[in-house]
Design a protein that fits this description.
Layout (H helix, E strand, L loop, with lengths): L7 E5 L9 H15 L3 E7 L18 E6 L2 E6 L9 H21 L5 E5 L6 H11 L3 E5 L3 H8 L5 H17 L2 E4 L2 H9 L7 E3 L16 H6 L6 E6 L9 H9 L6 E6 L5 H10 L5 E4 L6 H6 L3 E5 L14 H6 L4 E4 L3 H8 L3 E4 L4 H12 L2 H19 L1 H12 L5
Parallel strand pairs: 1-2, 1-5, 2-4, 5-6, 6-7, 7-8, 9-10, 9-12, 10-11, 12-13, 13-14
Antiparallel strand pairs: 3-4
Length: about 400
């Protein structure tokens, strides 16, 4: 048992509520569950600006820092250069500006007992290192994605020298951490192969708030909002990013265009969303609806969903992922059609809570959608199996309890 107190933790993340996205939802749930375990939590984050690259209304653009509370958790926000899009320079300014202001706020703010570093962007590891070296604060380095490997495989970064620097920094941040937490067993093996001791790596997978996200009757308000009454709704919820390969879903919708009862509802944002919207327009698809919905109504969103869809490109690194969007759907009793490989595919297939098809194959995805749409009894059976799975293994309450035990931190 390591004698590190649990009293005061600081969660460092560039992305947090009221922004919408997987990290924002995950960290909000994590903060709430840690409080349930008697830990005093504070969040250090940026002024909300994701994904449009514009500071949200109601937040000042000239102050260095402000404070607020979300779910009773103190949140300290610091200035950031707002920016998004595909410009590498703007994204770099966005990342580095927050790293700098967060470093100042962390070094001159109240000293936490433990620092939890969300590793996106990579540069936030600098804050962890400085807090360890200057203030003696141990940090947990959380790795939800293999971002350096993704950048290399997708060609996001062309400079080999820059990639080598990023790899070196990531290794440094990992090795100097008190603990590393990550989201899949394959990621754990990946870090072991890079020489990290297994005892330093902990398992903090994605999950769902089963108290909030539970099966409910269809919400009339949302059905009317998107004119979905009498429709069989297949929903995609989450970030529209390149590695999701959403072209596969759009082309599957094209193949099913003659099925007038089937509708595809796409909720979320991200760099690929404008292009995907344009693709649907170019294909003259009347069965694809684009909408927005806050996390607070996610339970009602899934109540109108017959099934959800998750897609990934056929990339080596993608095959190690376990998409977070899978678990809210299953928690609401909504089966998942997963077009991809990796641990999420294994979980769905092994627990009979959805269907899996090959990545980047619109024909097979369309066939799976058509098959599930014609099998209501099978759909309901999968939905019940998914809810049972999440309640047993993937509720945030269970995940965080197991993780704290794995950390082996002092109870006092």
């Amino acid at each position: 048992m390591v004698n590190i107190p649990r009293k005061r933790w600081l969660i460092l993340t560039q992305y947090y509520s009221p922004e919408i996205g997987a990290p924002q939802i995950r960290l909000r749930c994590l903060a709430n569950e840690l409080r349930e375990h008697g830990i005093d939590i504070e969040v250090l984050t940026a002024l909300p600006n994701y994904p449009k690259g514009e500071i949200f209304p109601g937040y000042p653009t000239t102050k260095f820092s402000i404070r607020e509370e979300i779910d009773g958790v103190p949140v300290r926000r610091v200035w950031i250069y707002p920016g998004s899009g595909k410009s590498p320079l703007i994204r770099l300014l966005n990342y580095l500006s927050f790293t700098l202001t967060a470093l100042i706020a962390a070094l001159f703010g109240p000293r936490p007992d433990v620092l939890f570093v969300e590793s996106q962007p990579l540069s936030l590891g600098i804050v962890g290192l400085c807090m360890k070296w200057i203030r003696g604060v141990p940090y947990i380095y959380h790795v939800p994605d293999l971002q350096v490997d993704v950048a290399r495989q997708m060609g996001f970064i062309k400079s080999e020298a820059f990639l080598r620097l990023a790899f070196y920094l990531e290794n440094l941040f990992l090795r100097k951490s008190w603990k590393v937490s990550t989201v899949t067993h394959r990621f754990i093996r990946h870090f072991e192969e890079r020489g990290l001791p297994r005892t330093q790596i902990t398992f903090l997978p994605n999950g769902a708030d089963t108290r909030f996200l539970c099966p409910k009757p269809p919400c009339p308000e949302l059905l009317d909002r998107w004119k979905l009454r009498e429709k069989t709704v297949f929903v995609y919820v989450g970030t529209h990013a390149y590695y999701h390969g959403l072209d596969t879903l759009i082309h599957a919708a094209k193949l099913l265009h003659d099925h007038k009862d089937l509708v595809f509802l796409m909720i979320g944002n991200g760099p690929e969303r404008p292009r995907i919207i344009q693709l649907a327009k170019d294909l003259k698809l009347s069965n694809v609806v684009f909408g927005q919905s806050p996390y607070e109504e996610m339970d009602r969103l899934y109540s109108i969903s017959y099934a959800s869809i998750a897609t990934l490109r056929d990339l080596e690194v993608a095959n190690q992922m376990r998409l977070s969007k899978v678990f809210p759907s299953l928690s609401c009793g909504v089966p998942v059609i997963y077009a991809g490989l990796g641990e999420a595919s294994d979980v769905i297939r092994d627990n009979h809570c959805g269907m899996t098809v090959d990545p980047e194959n619109p024909e097979k995805l369309a066939a799976a959608i058509e098959q599930l749409a014609s099998d209501r009894a099978g759909r309901d059976s999968m939905g019940k199996a998914g809810r049972h799975l999440v309640e047993a293994d993937y509720s945030w309450k269970i995940i965080v309890t197991r993780w704290i035990q794995e950390l082996g931190i002092s109870q006092h």
